[in-house]
Amino acid sequence: MFVDFQTLRFTRDHTWVRHRGDTLRVGLTDVLTRGLTDLVEVGLPPLGGDVHLLAPCGFLATRTWFGDLFAPMSGLVVERNERLFDDPGLIVRDPYDTGWLFEIRTTGDPLLDTLDGADYLELVSQVP
């Protein structure tokens, strides 16, 4: 899987963000998804709903684990990846393309507290 890290911004919580015109597409990094090989369900924020910085906005469930998704920034949900409801494994198999989660329209500086690709790679290289 080739990922152009120059087109993405990252959070320390292993979420990626990609500009798409006036919206931001949100997904999870492969660092986070590696351990989710038996992903069975995903919950996404409602279309037209608001998400708030670092607040729970959805969930992931495996056969043995359940965890919240947290919004990497505040905004209005303008699109969701509906394919994930039928095939949540896309998040694991193709996290940077077909496994994206949702798109938001945000106000203010959406990239204020994010890392560029080089800084993110340095961050994860320090994880044992």
TrEMBL record:
Alphabetized Pfam families for the sequence: GCV_H
GO CC aspect terms: cytosol; glycine cleavage complex
One GO-annotated biological process of the protein: protein lipoylation
Keywords of this entry: Lipoyl
Lineage: Bacteria, Bacillati, Actinomycetota, Actinomycetes, Pseudonocardiales
Keyword hit for Mitochondrion: no
Protein name: Glycine cleavage system H protein
UniProt-listed SUPFAM superfamilies: Single hybrid motif
CDD domains cross-referenced by the UniProt entry: GCS_H
